[in-house]
Amino acid sequence: MDYANLSPVKFRHLVRQGQFTGPTSGYCPGYTQANLIIVPQADAFDFLLLAQRNPRPCPVLEVADVGSRQLHQFAQDVDLANDFPRYRIYRDGQLVQEVTSLDDIWRNDFVAFLIGCSFSFEAELMAAGIEIRHITEGVNVPMYDTNIELLGAGKLQGQMVVSMRPIPGSQIAKAVEVTAAMPRVHGAPIQIGDPQAIGIQDLNHPDYGDPVTIMPGEYPVFWPCGVTPQNVVRQSKLPLVITHAPGHMLITDVINQDLK
What we know:
This is Putative hydro-lyase FC60_GL000275. The radius of gyration is 17 Å and the shape is globular. 45% of the residues are buried. It folds into two domains: 3-118 and 233-259, PSTPO5379-like; 131-228, PSTPO5379-like domain (PSTPO5379-like fold). By secondary structure, it is an alpha+beta fold. Strands 1, 2, 3, 4, 5, 10 and 11 form a seven-stranded antiparallel sheet that branches. The protein is built from six helices and eleven strands.
């Protein structure tokens, strides 16, 4: 079956049935992909405030009703407990489990946040003639912890996570132009060409995802990343937080053009 060109709803059904558990970059091109963070209602306001204060790495697309596994805006026929290929469960800041379903852990006080994902602008970059190396190489996008401090909120604090894509020098201006037009999915790059300036020591050892090849004449270009909440979770040591596994997104019914 050609999974890549399925409709979002059919793709979500495959994920829900456990038939697809991998990274989602390159699938359902043109449709918005989303990161996830789920917290108990007692911690939801702090997270919403954190996201409002840090919109580049944490652009909120939608917030579900308390206890609800459904959405109102970004997808119909959706189950937030099963439609991400993989989830991570954190307790007291420690990653304790990675699962493909939240059926056994779901609670009626959970609040789910959809966060914009840079996978959503990759189709736009490719349409502009810019290669996306991790798609070419069939791996997950490399992501790195940085020294860029977030504006804290309540118990929540931490540093930004960024995703990296190698871009030829002659195409960097176009990449900036294309992504700056999509602020709801992280917008323009936050750093170009100097990983050490944001605390990244070794591009070959990403903190999340996989390393990719950087060719001669290419520069590492860094965008704010929706994995940032996972860094915050570790440092803030909340009793229970659930996120998507990096690179394993929800594919929504909204087209990327609608986010411009």
